[in-house]
Hints:
Blueprint: E1 4-5, H1 6-9, E2 15-24, E3 27-30, E4 32-33, E5 47-51, E6 56-64, E7 75-79, H2 84-87, E8 95-100, H3 102-122, E9 126-131, E10 136-141, H4 148-160, E11 165-171, H5 172-177, E12 195-201, E13 205-208, E14 223-230, E15 235-242
Parallel strand pairs: 1-4
Antiparallel strand pairs: 2-3, 2-8, 5-6, 5-8, 6-7, 9-10, 10-15, 11-12, 12-13, 14-15
Helix pairs in contact: 3-4
Amino acid sequence: MSTRALFRSDAYLQACSATLTRVDAQGIEFDQTVFYPTGGGQAGDCGVVRTAAGLEIVIADTRKSKRAGAAPADVVHIPAPGQDALLAGLAPGTPVELEIDWARRYRHMRFHTATHLLCAIVGELVDGCSITAQHARLDFAMADVLDRDAVETALCALVEAAHPVSSRSITSAELLANPQLVKSMSVQPPLSSGTVRLIDIEGVDLQPCGGTHVRNTREIGAITVTKIEKKGARTRRVILGLDAQ
């Protein structure tokens, strides 16, 4: 049974009940989770797992499972080092409570939504992406020079315009018929499930994405373009920073 990804339908969900389905050298798996696994450039969540017996396991990272026979949606939670004695007390069927580091996740959501705005401003294909709690980076496949002040001004204007952000699904066939929706050269949306999730920033940007986002661009807050770098003859790297909110 695949992991039910609760963050897909509600990125603001900070905790949930779950049942442990597997624990091994790779990590811990549950029947459902609020933890986002590393993917699409966005860092995986960290947080804690608690049991009714009082055990508290610190989760340092979350990734898609690579075990043989794993379903594409299976998620593995990576415990922080030094917890072997605690892990020994876990077994399949154990009911648990999962809680993410919300402050960190929310920064991921703000940054990720900001990168979609940046795609709309620059208008070129993305050839690399990294979204962490400290910064976001997009590499654009382009040779033209980008003006840092102009990009930042446009970005802040879209943030302040308070555009609603929502998600919906289309079929894989619909995406193949509309290839212009794909803005990334380096991360292609999975088509095997038959449907593709789109993130719609009303009136600004529409593209496939499995990441977590805020509900309105104004939630992004004070965003800055900290640096624009030339990374090769046909690549421009834009790095974003956020306030401490």
